[in-house]
Design a protein that fits this description.
The chain has a single domain (13-74), classed as lambda repressor-like DNA-binding domains (434 Repressor (Amino-terminal Domain)). It is built from five helices and no strands. It has helices at 13-22, 27-36, 43-50, 58-68, 72-81. 27% of the residues are buried.
Length: 82
């Protein structure tokens, strides 16, 4: 069963997009970095995460945060502020 939170499949996609844009990274750039550490994602996968259309696994969030230079606690704080 797919669960949704306020109609969204994840609650961090918008923050991922914000931090990715702040780093001047394309979705393709992020996908390549994720592939280098062993996560098989492409730019479409990242787009769907950012638009809250795809569930995000905890280890994916941690890996994306590391690449974008954002720790989990910062993300958690911003999520709670929404």
């Amino acid at each position: 069963m797919i669960r949704k939170f306020n109609g969204k499949k994840n609650i961090s996609g918008e923050l991922i997009e914000k931090y990715r844009n702040a780093k001047h990274m394309t979705r393709e750039d992020l996908a390549k970095q994720l592939q280098l550490i062993g996560l098989n994602m492409d730019r479409t996968h990242i787009f769907r995460i950012e638009k809250n259309q795809l569930m995000l696994k905890d280890f994916e969030l941690i890996a994306i945060g590391k690449i974008l230079g954002v720790n989990y606690k910062e993300l958690e704080k911003e999520i709670k502020e929404k």
